[in-house]
Each structure stands twice: as C-alpha cells, then as structure tokens.
Design a protein that fits this description.
The chain is of the alpha/beta class and 351 residues long. 38% of the residues lie in helices and 15% in strands. It has a 5-stranded mixed β-sheet with strand order 5-1-6-15-7. A 5-stranded mixed β-sheet has the order 11-10-12-9-13, sandwiched between helices. Strands 2-3-4 form a 3-stranded antiparallel β-sheet. β10, α8 and β11 form a beta-alpha-beta unit. The chain is globular and about 55 Å long.
Length: 351
C-alpha cells in the first residue's frame, strides 16, 4: 500500500483507472524482473563484468576505421557451417536450442504482452529476428532458449558462454569490438532525451543543467553522458542515476524520482507509447548508432551465418525485416526516417 501511495503521488497528468492499472503493472513487472536480474548478475560473475568494463577502454578505438564506422567491422556473409554452429546443433534433448540473451521488458522490442497471461510468449522486433535465426540454424523458429539479460550483463553473458548471442537493442561501437563480435547492423537509431511533456527540458542541451537523469548501466547513453561531462560538451546534470534495465528508468520518471531519461530514440519512442504523458525531446537524435547481433569474438562461422540470414531477412518482403518493422515499430517511429529501412551492410574484413 505504501508503494501504491508513492505511485499515486507521482502520477502527474495520468488520470483514470486505466492509467493507474498500467502503472501498477509496470511496478509489478519491475518487482518480478529485478530478482531475476540479480540472480543473473551473480550467475555471470561480477569479475567478468569488471573485466569487460576494463577491456572497454582497450585498443579498438585506436583504430580509426573502428572508431568512425564500427558497424562495418564484421565478416562477409556465408551459409557454411562451422565449429560454433555444430556445437549448437550437437546439444541434446530440451537443450538443443539457440541460447539467446534478450530483453523482456522493452515494449515492442522484446517484451511479454501483459494481456497474454502468465505464460505469454516474448514478442517484439528483436524477438522476430531471433526466431528467424533459429529457423535457419536449427530448422525450427521456436527452438530458442530465451535468457533475460540486464543491459550491463550482455557482454559477460556472451564471453562466459551463458548465451550463444545477444539480440537486445545492442549498439555496435568500437569499445565493445574488443570484447565481442557483431553482425552487420540491423537497425539505425541514436540517443535522445525522454521527459514529461510538461517539462522545460528541450533536448540534450543546457536545459538538462541541474536535472536528475536516468540511464541504464552499461548502455551507450551512460558512456555518452560520462564522456560529454568530462569534455564539458553540455551543462552537467545534477546527477546521473543508473539502473539495470531501460524500463526501470521509465518507472522512475513516472514516480518523479528523475527528471529525464537518456536512451536510444527507438526505445524512447516505445516508452512514450506506454505513457502518453512523456515524449522525446529534441527533433533528432544527437548520435548515430546501429544495433547488431553480438556473439563471441572467435565465433566466425556464427557471425558469417547471421550476416547471411540478415541478407535474406532484408530481402524477404512477406515475413522479413520490413514486415516486422511494420508490425512492431511503425506506429511509434517516423515512417519517413532512416529507421524505417534496414541499414545497408558493408563488410570491411576480408574472407
């Protein structure tokens, strides 16, 4: 009852029983998801995360090609099998599935439909791609073992072999290229600011001065805020608050605990669809980023195979990239923007 009281206090402009029920559902989802996130943090190991964060400061960004175009640092597509794919296929019984790290609380990307009941399947743009990969590699689109991975555990989960890949709105950048391999990009987006419609925040600028800003730990938004604060690119926020998952930021915004969220524009648009009292601030993203499928650095055959699957996925007009975009994202994103088309691949590494 005490928590619900706080929720009611923070519901500025929501109004209505339906809106209240929506927030209660979000709070309940948060309560259910956080214990799982903690247990997965423990399972993947704190030392692994520390190692990944230290490696993020490594050599990749010294390479101008990786720094300027990290989305092109991938292997050419191929349909040939290799050691990684054979290991996946060699799994026995119920384990003979593709093990994939995903999000389960990013609306329209990877989430459980609240109207689907306790056993609702995961849905969304990322989930469609996972099913397509499983169909190609294992012959069954449902041969997937989904594992919910917090934002800051994506790289450790791959490195430790907890998952075969991560398909979780994961930006390709030069720092991460030291730790994992990426597919060709499958979505273009950029960082934006999410805040209440009534807020005086105008975007990623001086209007953030003195504000409390929420970001997901391990996200590119967090790195961007840190870097820009050091270089004084913008007037520093009052404080930056980190959470395990993006939905946690939306809940904190609804409770009035933070003034704004910095996140990928594509994710922010979906969060604005969940809550009509918030909106993206600023006309365009202030960065350019690309999502990719992340895999182990030495899983060359799997990287090539996923790139081939993406080639076919882009071409499939009946049930491919465009159909998935129209199903999940067209209602919240500008249909005339670059996001409404799959980004063209380019492969700089030789066969």
């Amino acid at each position: 009852m005490r928590m619900l009281g706080r929720v009611r206090t923070g519901l500025r402009g929501w109004g209505g029983v339906g809106a209240m029920a929506a927030v209660c559902a979000l709070v309940l989802a948060l309560a259910l998801l956080l214990p799982q996130a903690r247990s997965q943090d423990a399972g993947t190991g704190g030392s692994e995360l520390a190692h990944a964060q230290q490696a993020a400061d490594g050599k990749a960004c010294d390479d101008p090609a990786k720094k300027e175009h990290p989305e092109y640092q991938t292997l050419p597509p191929s349909s040939q099998d290799g050691a990684t794919i054979e290991r996946i296929r060699a799994r026995k019984g119920a384990q003979r599935k593709l093990w994939v790290g995903v999000d389960q609380n990013s609306y329209r990307w990877g989430y459980r439909n609240p109207n689907g009941g306790p056993g609702a399947d995961l849905e969304g743009f990322d989930i469609d791609l996972v099913h397509r990969i499983a169909k190609d590699i294992l012959g069954d689109p449902n041969a997937v073992l989904f594992k919910a991975i917090p934002t800051n555990q994506r790289i450790p989960a791959i490195q430790k072999g907890y998952v075969d890949m991560v398909v979780r709105t994961m930006t390709i950048n030069c720092k991460r290229l030291d730790d994992v391999a990426f597919s060709a990009p499958y979505f273009k987006t950029g960082q934006q600011v999410l805040a209440p419609k009534s807020s005086d925040i105008k975007g990623y600028d001086g209007t953030l001065a003195g504000k409390k800003v929420c970001v997901a730990a391990g996200s590119t938004a967090f790195s961007q805020l840190e870097d820009d604060e050091k270089t004084k690119k913008y007037v520093a926020a009052k404080d930056i608050r980190t959470v395990p998952n993006q939905l946690d930021c939306l809940v904190r915004l609804q409770l009035g605990e933070v003034d704004a969220v910095v996140t990928d524009g594509a994710l922010g648009a979906s969060q604005a669809a969940q809550d009509p009292t918030v909106e993206l601030k600023g006309e365009t993203p202030f960065t350019t980023e690309y999502y990719g499928v992340a895999m182990k650095s030495d899983a060359d055959d799997l990287v090539r195979r996923v790139n081939q699957i993406l080639v076919d996925y882009r071409k499939d007009t009946a049930d491919g990239w465009q159909a998935s975009y129209d199903r999940w994202l067209s209602a919240t994103l500008d249909k005339s923007s670059a996001e409404s088309q799959p980004p063209p691949p380019k492969y700089l590494r030789k066969s």
